[in-house]
Specification:
By secondary structure, this protein is an alpha/beta fold. It folds into two domains: 2-124 and 292-321, Quinone Oxidoreductase, Chain A, domain 1 (Alpha-Beta Complex), CATH 3.90.180.10; 138-264, NAD(P)-binding Rossmann-like Domain (Rossmann fold, 3-Layer(aba) Sandwich), CATH 3.40.50. Helices cover 27% and strands 26% of the residues. Strands 3, 4, 5, 6, 7, 14 and 15 form a seven-stranded mixed beta sheet that branches. A six-stranded parallel beta sheet has the order 10-9-8-11-12-13, sandwiched between helices. The termini are close together. 48% of the residues are buried. The model has no long low-confidence stretch (mean pLDDT 96). InterPro entries: ADH-like_C (IPR013149), ADH-like_N (IPR013154), ER (IPR020843), GroES-like_sf (IPR011032), NAD(P)-bd_dom_sf (IPR036291). Residues 10-320 form the Enoyl reductase (ER) domain. GO terms for molecular function: NADPH binding; oxidoreductase activity, acting on NAD(P)H. This is NADPH:quinone reductase.
Length: 323
């Protein structure tokens, strides 16, 4: 099979398309014929040497979308459409940047859809994280206001779609004024240019602040996001687009505005129920929901895809197609 192999931390030239033996699943594991694999910041962190617990050489990819090729236990039927994600994929064992991947069955979520593989490949990890952030992380309710810090990334688009479907009012940020239209087209009620003082812009619209905020940029913008949130409101720290995720010398009383709650979200395949995935895909098929723009690359152009991911050149989700 063809697969992308990361020889070690470093530049995109460390990503090479190679021929590898077809992996053989042990009992409890499943071999998936991969059709598409979404790109994530996690893989960028792995390539840059920022991720912990990674051994090299490694096939990256924390998610994969395709069909069951072999289940030695006979639990899943060959040809069944599935997604797989997380749980060590692309870090402690080979991941989704390959024509075939072998994963624990516990990380596999089945579905049925006639959507194109390019579209399906953009869904699993993005949907899991957006859904978990809004439910477990924020407990978002209909009628509430939500600020998304980093709205033009794939996760921002997904969170907007889910929040709007729930009945929330969405404010979302971008650093580029020329991307405000993309936010508005996706249904954002109040697109904002991130000038470093988003809290002031939010409170000009909502003097008490937003009910909930989703932090996707990282710790550099977190204090401003907290200031944009009302007393008894909640901020969920989920993303790290800035590649910064720690707060040096954290002093809670000095850091957190009085009465504002700070949570975090980091989920796994088991946090995306199969019925939630199926319902989302069905609504995508009717046009009722969208994850936003999807940009597809053939496997041979993985270096281009990683360059675009690292430089933030694209609005929306990047996906590798295996065939």
């Amino acid at each position: 099979m063809r697969a992308v192999v990361l020889s070690g931390p470093g530049p995109v030239t460390n990503l090479e398309v190679r021929r590898l033996p077809l992996p053989v699943p042990e009992p409890g594991w499943v071999r998936i014929r991969v059709e598409a694999a979404g790109l994530n910041r996690s893989e960028l962190h792995t390539r840059l040497g920022l991720a912990e617990g990674v051994s090299f050489p490694r096939v990256p990819g924390i998610e994969a979308t395709g069909t069951v090729d072999l289940d030695p236990d006979g639990v899943l039927t060959p040809g069944q459409q599935v997604v797989a994600m997380m749980g060590g994929m692309g870090r402690t064992f080979d991941g989704g940047y390959a024509e075939y991947t072998v994963v624990p069955r516990t990380q596999v979520v089945p579905f049925r859809s006639e959507l194109a593989w390019q579209t399906l490949g953009a869904v699993p990890e993005t949907l899991q994280t957006a859904y978990g952030s809004l439910t477990t992380g924020l407990d978002l309710r209909p009628g509430q206001t939500l600020l998304i810090r980093g709205g033009t990334k794939a996760l921002g688009f997904a969170a907007t779609a889910l929040a709007k479907d729930l009945g929330a009012t969405v404010l979302a940020t971008t650093r580029s004024a020329d991307r405000l239209a993309a936010l508005e087209d996706h249904g954002v009620d109040h697109p904002l240019v991130d000038d470093g003082d988003v809290a002031a812009q939010v409170r000009a619209l909502l003097p008490d602040g937003v009910d909930a905020a989703l932090e996707l940029v990282g710790t550099p913008t977190l204090p401003d996001t907290l200031r944009a949130t009302r007393v008894h409101g909640t901020v969920c720290f989920t993303g790290m687009l800035s590649n910064e995720w720690t707060v040096p010398d954290f002093y809670p009383i000095g850091y957190l505005p009085t009465g504002v709650r700070l949570t975090a979200y980091g989920g796994d395949a088991t946090d995306l129920p199969a019925d939630v995935l199926q319902r989302f895909l069905d609504r995508m098929a009717t046009g009722a929901l969208s994850l936003g723009p999807v940009h597809a690359y053939p496997l041979d152009r993985v270096r281009d895809a990683h360059n675009d991911l690292e430089e933030g050149r694209r609005v929306g989700k990047l996906v590798l197609l295996m065939r």
